[in-house]
Recover the amino acids of this structure.
């Protein structure tokens, strides 16, 4: 089946998670996150159907992403990227730093850390790996391992503008509140696809001082509260959807269990 083209932001919201409780703030501290990954609590991953147009005759390409949880004084944030518009896969979408596993990568964590260094210049020495969530199979044929890591400031970013258009941070508390989780519906000839979306206002970080946000540049960018006010983009939303939103939804299920 040929993958249909659609504009996810224009599609109807058919449900939200407003009936579900948010993850309590005391569970979102660095110590609590460490403790949660050390425990073996039973939990149920979100039942998210894969895109029906994926070619199931081909083996999925193995990949990994880093889910960077930045330890800020005002609370943990999630570092995300806006992919460049010219890329073949997931062009222009909000994503985590990551990519295909290479033969020399020891494991998924090695892939995630290498890709984060290549895409945004994040030094692996600033990342404390906590663990990983279940693999996620994308409609574009990737089997992605979401590697969760705490990022400890201070750190600087050097963005690869060939892959990344923008880097920004969203409060973890916002993303772990299912009232902010939209379920949208794409109907097409022959079927339908449901997916999660978590739109985040661009101006919110500036108003609340919630995290650093950067445009792609060829030079090092120091993440700090001062750069928040000077570089945050006004107006519109960062539209977090698809695989990225699905992995965040699984993080919610994991932390809420």
């Amino acid at each position: 089946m040929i993958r249909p083209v659609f504009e996810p932001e224009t599609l109807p919201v058919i449900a939200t998670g407003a009936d579900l409780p948010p993850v309590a703030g005391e569970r979102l501290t660095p110590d609590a996150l460490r403790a949660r990954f050390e425990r073996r609590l039973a939990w149920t991953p979100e039942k998210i159907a894969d895109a029906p147009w994926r070619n199931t005759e081909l083996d999925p390409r193995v990949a990994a992403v880093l889910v960077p949880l930045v330890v800020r004084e005002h609370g943990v944030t999630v570092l995300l990227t806006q992919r460049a518009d010219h890329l073949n896969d997931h062009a222009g979408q909000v994503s985590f730093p990551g990519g295909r596993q290479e033969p020399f990568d020891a494991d998924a964590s090695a892939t995630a850390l290498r890709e984060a260094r290549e895409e945004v210049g994040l030094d692996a020495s600033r990342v404390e790996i906590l663990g990983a969530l279940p693999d996620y199979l994308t409609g574009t044929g990737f089997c992605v391992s979401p590697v969760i890591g705490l990022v400890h400031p201070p750190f600087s970013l050097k963005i690869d503008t060939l892959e990344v258009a923008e880097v920004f941070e969203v409060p973890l508390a916002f993303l772990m509140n299912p009232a902010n989780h939209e379920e949208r519906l794409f109907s097409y000839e022959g079927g339908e696809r449901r997916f999660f979306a978590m739109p985040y206002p661009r101006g919110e970080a500036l108003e609340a001082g919630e995290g650093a946000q950067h445009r792609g540049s060829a030079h090092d960018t120091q993440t700090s509260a001062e750069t928040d006010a000077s570089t945050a983009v006004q107006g519109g939303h960062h539209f977090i959807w698809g695989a990225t939103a699905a992995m965040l939804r699984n993080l919610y299920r994991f932390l809420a269990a």
